[in-house]
Amino acid sequence: MNGRNMMVRETDSLSEARIFSRKKRRWGLLCLLFGSLALSAQNFVWKAGVHSFFDNEEYAGSAVQTPQTMAGVHLVPQVGVAWNGKHRVFAGVDALKEFGTDRVLDAASLLAYYEYEGRYFDFRMGAFPRQEVLDRYPRMFFQDSIAYYRPVMTGLSWEYHRKHGYAHVWLDWTGRQTTEKRETFFIGWSGRYNLGVFYGQHFGYMYHFAKRKNPPLPDPLHDNGLIWTSLGVDWASKTSFEKLELNVGWSAGAERNRDGDNAWHVAHGLLSELKVEYKGLGLFNTYYRGGAQQRFYAQYGNALYWGDSFYRTKEYNRTDLYVNFFKTPVVNVKLVVSFHWAERNLYNEQTLCASFDLDNLQKKKAPRYEYIWDGWFKPASSRSEGGL
């Protein structure tokens, strides 16, 4: 290549560099301008949560459960932007510190999601807090430890709600396929319709437990479905109780191993709930009788089943007696003593949960929660002044 051609190419390169630099500055100014306009139309929003749990499970002698103590604290900071009063984008982290470990953090999960809250519709997509969308589901579907150790849901949630009820569908993608990890995901649906004090409700999901990529050994593919439909009566609005509700319904778990007999194995059962809460004191009783659920638990354990393992028995009753020491939109402190009747034995469990949640979102003011002990610690003069 001669010198002239080299000079021409150098000149062309310098010209292209100047043109690119000018374009870059223009794009930068445009981005700054649009960014400023966007921020002027948006609001900075934030959430901050601290969620502590101590769960002591005394299941010694059980063939379906393992005695253990789970304890830790979640720190959940989030920041984002909101616009038009309905749209929000959040980013944050859910950081877990377990009690008694030597690590600074035991787990951390990214939070990053879009959220829409309208008059009749709610929608989320991304990585968002699980309990915000699945807290209605019974323990037959999701045991307590899921909230402790799988607090983030990755997928989407859509809910339609009106005065008389709601309809909800969701997707949780729990495993991306690799040579070491299975592809796994949940598809779920639920709903409720109220008619006066009576109501009907339904919960369901399907869990797809697929193969790993190019598995070196046999790697069976499983499908695991579970539904529960019930009818109930809710008297709370007619009384001074915060909760006064009873429902009874039919449940069915359907499972198959596609690489085995490929037949659906269905376990039917009756499932009922009783909920009573009055001024800080409460009772929540769940009773199940029917076919044993979680047919393939011996092979896969909690990797395949996220529900309570007590439902592997044919009869199970759980009674929760609890005290709400604080119950506000910001602070909640709850002590629960649970009795589990299964396998012809009585087991017990004690749980203490304390949570603090604060944000700058505009919400309707919640009515003050009343406690049965509100007047116990007031001076006698104060009680007499308000008595007549």
Secondary structure blueprint with pairings:
Blueprint: H1 3-41, E1 43-58, E2 68-83, E3 87-98, E4 107-117, E5 121-129, H2 131-134, H3 144-149, E6 152-162, E7 165-175, E8 184-195, E9 198-209, E10 222-234, E11 243-257, E12 265-278, E13 281-290, H4 297-300, E14 315-327, E15 331-342, E16 345-359, H5 380-385
Q: Your description of this structure?
A:
- Mean pLDDT is 89; it is low at 1-17 and 29-38.
- Strand 12 and strand 13 (281-290) form a beta hairpin.
- The protein has helices spanning 3-41, 131-134, 144-149, 297-300, 380-385; strands at 43-58, 68-83, 87-98, 107-117, 121-129, 152-162, 165-175, 184-195, 198-209, 222-234, 243-257, 265-278, 281-290, 315-327, 331-342, 345-359.
- It is built from 5 helices and 16 strands.
- The protein has 388 residues and is α+β, with helices and mostly antiparallel strands.
- Strands 1-2-3-4-5-6-7-8-9-10-11-12-13-14-15-16 form a 16-stranded antiparallel β-barrel.
- Helices cover 15% and strands 52% of the residues.
- The protein is globular, with a radius of gyration of 27 Å.
